[in-house]
Write a structure and sequence with these properties.
It is a single chain. This protein is an alpha/beta fold and about 475 residues long. The protein has one domain: TIM Barrel. Helix content is about 25%, strand content about 15%. It has 13 helices and 18 strands. An eight-stranded parallel β-barrel has the order 7-8-9-14-15-16-17-18, surrounded by five helices. A two-stranded antiparallel ribbon has the order 1-2. The chain has a two-stranded antiparallel sheet with strand order 3-4. α3 packs parallel to α4. The structure holds flavin mononucleotide. Flavin mononucleotide binds next to β8 and α12. The site of flavin mononucleotide has 27 residues, from β8 and α12. InterPro entries: Aldolase_TIM, OxRdtase_FMN_N, Oye-like.
Length: about 475
């Protein structure tokens, strides 16, 4: 029986078991029309946490996965800068022999040098929120998940991490504002490094894309504006409403910039090789950059330069803190997620690319205008390839994402359109995606009903490998 058919059976039973979970909305950049994020999770009586090495099971009883339940615990956490404990280790895979693993059979699988990082191939794990870091803490099952996708010379970008308590918009997302979170991340990072991969962390502030349940003391989420996101309707008709935001005062903005700086420092303390700033998909940085949302009249609104001031300050602060040589920025200039779009996206993004060039930012990660369905229903993805002006303008490593399959990824690399290609859903469902590409093997289908559910195994670490090992 093939992996695919085996998995199909598992997916069916997974769906049956998950059928009562209430899906809510698509929140992370709508990979396709029916991808949705659950707003509410049903209470679960127990969770099993798996350790990468010993596979021990820790049974935690009586836990509820209601989004508001863990909040009281989070509120007790104080944001803090982590004192420097050790010189950050720059990961290099020079010592690792990987060339025998990845044949140069296809452009995607050729080695690539990204700054000081020697990558074995161009297939990158895209950042994907999985809502399985219960209590905003990375957990042992998170280590299993990332280690499954790690291999010598691979580049993984971890899911978006909240830079502060106000940065959260969804349940059980990991954070990087406390010493406890740094410690917890360290185990995940170690698991990935032990397999020879390079691991970056995405830093995130959701801004107005947050219900008050996830805000300290139930306060309004912050944004560049006081305009509320319009209610978002999910594929099953469920309507998700975000809270009316509070427009940040000019003098408050440096504190948010500082949250990114501290989180970046914390990421390095946790052992990450670098960070990716989340400037895409309608979240806070995008809410400042794009003119459909930013209606400010101060130095952070108006002209493109002024709307990009917040982004510029964040990337400058992070670059000064950890070095531009381990900093990436993710942008989605053409997207309109969460009512966030721009009347002149090309000029806007070129301006940001110029800022990145001035700072010497390591990589630019851009999402194609329309994320198409890669291979679903047997259809071929249609990649718009509208990122070429930015590819030409950016001096560092250029990474593309959005609807790519193996053939399209190969073409992007072969044509010089991109240096690296990030894969989201395909990597989520295929922990050994680069190896499957190398063998031109079939792929597991992703199960979107478990994208954002809280189970530490189901739809998370139970996608099968080609060789049935993990
Ligand atoms: C489950 C899921 C979670 C996601 N979470 C994030 C995230 O945390 N940060 C981000 O920038 N994009 C996020 N995205 C968007 C993906 O990184 C990627 O842009 C998208 O899936 C399109 O790529 P693909 O066609 O290869 O799947 C998420 C997508 C999915 C499916």
């Amino acid at each position: 029986m093939s992996c695919r058919s085996t998995f199909a059976g598992r997916q069916t039973s997974a769906r049956n078991r998950q059928s009562k979970l209430s899906p809510a909305n698509q929140l992370f950049g709508r990979p396709d029309k029916s991808t949705r994020t659950p707003l509410l999770f049903l209470a679960k009586k127990e969770h099993y946490y798996y350790d990468t090495n010993s596979l021990y099971k820790e049974r935690i009883s009586g836990r509820t996965s209601s989004p508001s339940a863990p909040l009281s615990r989070h509120l007790a956490l104080k944001k803090q800068s982590i004192t420097k404990r050790q010189k950050p280790v720059v990961r290099s895979v020079e010592a690792v022999t990987y060339t025998h693993i990845m044949e140069a059979s296809t452009p995607l699988l050729t080695p690539y040098k990204m700054g000081q990082f020697d990558l074995a191939h161009r297939v990158v794990l895209a950042p994907m929120t999985r809502c399985r870091s219960h209590g905003n803490m990375p957990r042992p099952h998170n280590a299993v998940y990332y280690a499954q996708r790690a291999a010598p010379g691979a580049l993984l970008v971890a899911e978006a991490c909240a830079v502060s308590e106000t940065a959260r918009g969804y349940p059980d997302v990991p954070g990087l504002w406390s010493a406890e979170q740094v410690e917890a991340w360290r185990h995940v990072v170690d698991a990935v490094h032990s397999k020879g991969a390079v691991f970056f962390c995405q830093l995130w502030h959701t801004g107005r894309v947050s219900p008050t349940e996830f805000q300290p003391n139930g306060q309004a989420p912050i944004s560049s504006t006081d305009k509320q996101v319009t209610p978002q309707v999910s594929h099953d008709g469920h309507v998700l409403e975000f809270a009316p935001p509070r427009r940040l005062k000019t003098e408050e903005i440096p504190n948010i910039v500082d949250d990114f700086r501290i989180a970046a420092r914390n990421a390095i303390e946790a052992g990450f090789d670098g960070v990716e700033i989340h400037g895409a998909n309608g979240y806070l940085i995008d809410q400042f950059m794009k003119d459909s949302v930013n209606d400010r009249t101060d130095a952070y609104g108006g002209s493109i330069e002024s709307r990009c001031r917040f982004a510029a300050e964040v990337i400058t602060a992070v670059a000064n803190e950890i070095g531009a040589h381990r900093l990436g920025l993710r942008l989605s200039p053409f997207a309109d997620y969460m009512d966030c779009y721009d009347s002149d996206p090309e000029t806007l993004a070129l301006h940001v690319v110029g800022l990145m060039n001035d700072l010497g930012v390591l990589y630019c990660h851009m999402i194609e205008p329309r994320m198409c369905v890669a291979g679903e229903d047997g259809s071929k993805p249609v990649i718009p390839h509208r990122l070429l002006p930015f590819r030409k303008a950016f001096k560092g490593t250029f990474m593309v994402n959005g609807g790519y399959d193996r053939e399209e990824g190969d073409k992007a690399v072969a044509d010089g359109y991109a240096d690296l290609v990030a894969y989201g859903r395909l990597f989520l469902a295929n922990p050994d995606l680069p190896e499957r590409f190398r063998r031109k093997a079939g792929l597991n289908k992703y199960d979107r009903s478990t994208f954002y559910t809280s189970d530490p195994v189901l739809g998370y670490t139970d996608y099968p490998f080609l060789d049935n090992q993990n």
